[in-house]
Write a structure and sequence with these properties.
Blueprint lengths: L7 E4 L4 H14 L4 E4 H4 L8 H6 L2 E3 L5 E3 H9 L7 H8 L3 H14 L1 H5 L4
Parallel strand pairs: 1-2
Antiparallel strand pairs: 1-3, 3-4
């Protein structure tokens, strides 16, 4: 991580869908979160396997805690105080975590197909 020790969201830089959503997240989080493609950062975080980097986004908190998938997205958005509610729902409403992780995994496994919708 950088000298400011901000959290970093690692994503697939070869994926159009991933780059699209990261651009949106950057706008929402402004300078509170750093972003890096897995292709440029895989050597910096050896504790995260290439398989993990390929399967979903990884949020590395400043304390070294790593989150992935939908939870990583919701935690990233929560760095903007007005966007904390999705994480609250994820953590407190029965079924939200399970259903959003299922949807995230489905889209992640088929992201090349979903990328066509954003072109």
């Amino acid at each position: 991580m950088d000298s400011e020790n901000k959290p970093i969201l690692i994503y697939d830089g070869d994926c159009d869908l991933c780059r699209y959503w990261v651009a949106r997240c950057r706008h929402i989080t402004q300078d509170r979160v750093d972003y890096a493609s897995s292709q440029e950062s895989n050597h910096l975080l050896p504790e995260i396997s290439p398989e993990q980097l390929q399967s979903s986004v990884q949020l590395v908190q400043s304390d070294g805690t790593v989150y992935d998938g939908a939870e990583a997205v919701f935690r990233t958005l929560a760095f903007n105080p007005s966007r904390h509610w999705p994480l609250w729902l994820y953590r407190n409403v029965w079924g939200v975590a399970c259903s959003t992780e299922f949807i995230y995994r489905f889209i992640a496994r088929n992201r090349r197909i979903f990328s066509r919708f954003i072109r």
